[in-house]
Amino acid sequence: MNVAVYGGSFDPPHIGHEEIIKESLKTLDIEQLFVVPTYLNPFKNAFFAPAQIRLKWVEKLLFNTPRAQVLDFEIKQNRPVPSIETIQYILENYDTDTIYLIIGADNVLDLPKWKDYKSLQKLVTFVVATRDGLNIPKNLQKLDINVTISSTLLRENLKREYLPIMIADEILEFYTGKQMNQRIENIIKFLDEKKAENIEAFDMREKDYFVDDVIIATTLGMKHGTSLADYLKKELKADGILDIEQSDEWSVIDMGDMLIHLMSPEYRAMYNLEEFLSGRDAKEQY
User: Model confidence over 69-100: pLDDT tens digits?
Assistant: First the structure.
């Protein structure tokens, strides 16, 4: 069968994504469209909404869309996945004749930087979704899309009219902070239940920092710090952990938009992160 593959962060999904999906099913000679949310774009350093939340949004977006299927392969890897791996997975698990790989016009210039690009060229036919008048080489197939919106711009200026109707409320609630605050409250509650002390959460959105929130907690000792880090790895796996640096004295859990520091009393006193992070404007302290 002929299939198309459309990957993206969907952070958040918007009507531009929706239009690409509809136009692909309408104009491409395909029996199946695979929509593939990324765990993390290989060319980016962080995501905003956790992978599992983005996956659920895309599943709801495609709920009543025949011939479109959400593929969670990349999210299950818990790491950035190059397109060549996803295409190889599809080739191994589905009976395919032709694979169209749908990309945005803003990705065309960077195609040679993609992992194993020459091999990828042999496996797929690229289809480029038009955007913002960007030039598309004549040798590449086009998908004419009239919506000019990006997830980055949308996060900076959320407007309901740019969001798919069936998930607009959820997206607005998440990015306007309600669910973000709930995540922080859940982590603080979890740390408190596991006997961590002096738990503080800092809002860094107005401070030109590289994450939105930072949580600091004091451990009761080396074994307790290691146990807390192990517990959080399991507890937060679905939210998407990018990296974890773990030691007996100081562990750092990187969730893309949030850092969690677990520090021994001695290290916390020595480094005094609270002062560095913003002059003690913590949201919570226990």
Answer: 999 999 999 889 999 999 999 999 999 999 99
Q: What is the pTM of this model?
A: 0.74
Rounded to whole angstroms, the Cα distance separating 138 from 112 reads 17
Percent of the chain having pLDDT more than 90? 57
- Per residue in 186-212, pLDDT (tens digit) is 899 899 999 999 898 888 877 778 888
Q: Token pair for residue 154?
A: 């949308």
The number of beta carbons lying within 10 Å of the beta carbon of residue 157 is: 7
pLDDT of residue 212: 86
Q: Quickly tell me which residue has 């695979």 as its tokens.
A: 34
| CATH fold of 2-175 | Rossmann fold (3.40.50)
Burial class (CB in 10 A: 0-12, 13-18, 19+), 223: exposed
Specify the 3-state DSSP secondary structure of 151.
Answer: helix
Highest CATH level, class, for 187-278? alpha beta
H-type alpha helices, the chain: 15-27, 51-61, 73-76, 83-93, 117-123, 151-156, 168-175, 178-193, 222-235, 265-271, 273-278
Strands 197-203 and 213-218: antiparallel
Residue 228 and residue 194: Cα distance in Å, rounded? 7
Tokens of 180: 């973000």
- Residue 112's SS3 state is helix
CA distance between the termini of the chain: 58
Residue 177 CA neighbour count, 13 Å, CB half:
5
Taking the domains of the chain in order of start, what are their residue ranges? 2-175, 187-278
Alpha-carbon Rg for the chain, nearest whole angstrom, is 21
Which residue in the block uniquely carries the two structure tokens 């302290």? 285
